[in-house]
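User: Round two. Same drill as before: sequence, then structure, for each protein.

Assistant: Same drill it is. First protein:
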Amino acid sequence: MKKIQLFLAVLFLLFTVSLSAQTTGPERRFEGGLVAGFNMSQIDGDLLHGFHKLGFNAGGRVNALLNERWRIGLELLFSQQGASRSKLDNPASQYDKIRLNFVEAPVLVHFQDWKIQATAGVSYGRLISYEIIDYTGEDVTEQIPLKEDLFSIVLGGTFFFDEHFGLNIYWSKWLNNLRIGDTSTPTPVGAESGKFIGRNVTIRGVYMF
């Protein structure tokens, strides 16, 4: 609960600073906005395939306007990721669901031309809670320790319908293994790797002030 309260406090501060820094007209140097949508997630290494795990992705952003086309931005997000079993998944997997809750802070570079904005960057995530359910339905969270720090690469774009509203689609992949333990032993073919490397497709609505 304290981590959620800290997240909300930082988010409020982020927007207070952003809005106070904004001006109107050509001299404007900062812009703020809100984003809300969902992640479709999967994790490589658990023998579960497909982006079947749905989770919230919401928060705020602040952009520094370098010129008419280029922006550097920071987002502060609550992001739910993980993996979920489907009927076609490998029965050898020991997992049924992996639920991960992060506070994320992506640092992004935006290039905008007309109504289309292309984006690339990196993200730091802090794991605030998680739950792992095995194929029998048992909670095995305490048996599988995870790292708290996560780094990801982010690519994507946004289509703006007008100066305020847009549709945002991102793809991201973890750069580090979230599992704690020795994963140096070669993995037999068809077996779980012992690594958690996640991938996400994120679809969000964007509102810029």
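Second protein:
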Amino acid sequence: MGTKTENTELFTDKSESYAKYRSGYPEEMIEKIIESFRGQNEIQVADIGAGTGISSRLLGNTGAKVTAVEPNQAMAEAAEEHPNVKYVIAPAETTGLENNSFDIVSSFQAFHWFHFRESLKEFNRILKPGGKLALVWSYWDETDEFTGKYLKIIEEATNKNTEHVSPYDGFPAGFIKKWRIRFLWKFRTMPYFRNVERLRYSYVQKMDAEALIGCAHSQSYLIHEGEEWNMLCNKIEDLYDSNRSSGTDLKYKVNLFIGSPRK
């Protein structure tokens, strides 16, 4: 790993697990993203790094017309069809979409994989002057007892994968993700955008043992075969069995950043 091309292939063999077991997003957050465009005849959204379309379908459910941009063909093919969602296979930095053509550009759980300035410049280009950029990250809420235990198991397994790095000078992708979220949260500033607003939501995902293992299988930074994977699955099953009476939901904190393009 280490180049942008390789980076886009990280989820090829995880697309089915991603589509089936990754969490959704709070309805009130989706409404917040589109609220200022309510009343238009049509809301045009470009959902960048759309993966298997979890966020694209939620946006499409509002009546918006969504162009889901995803570089990985396998991820796009794993997406459920939706009447308001169409796919374009392209990277975030060069979408090929028309200038000033979208009311909203969104990216859910993906922006940390993009080249920072290049992708923001592209988002500015395709947004209408009165448009909005919405960047979303959800992460496990470690203050919840069960979620914290699950996270610890995942982190222990992640540390065993010494080959997991990002295309950014060898830093782990998790480091890049945390840096970007913290930077945005503190300074609320991005190239090519202004008036950045930050909001936080919560989300609960109902899980059984199969879903907990499936969620782990959808993670790009884990070893998904051999003894290490088998040990991870056993630990997750033990965690589920020991907590069935007290609850096995995964709880999330969800950060939303909304900004306006500098035109």
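DSSP finds ten helices and seven strands in the chain.

User: Perfect.
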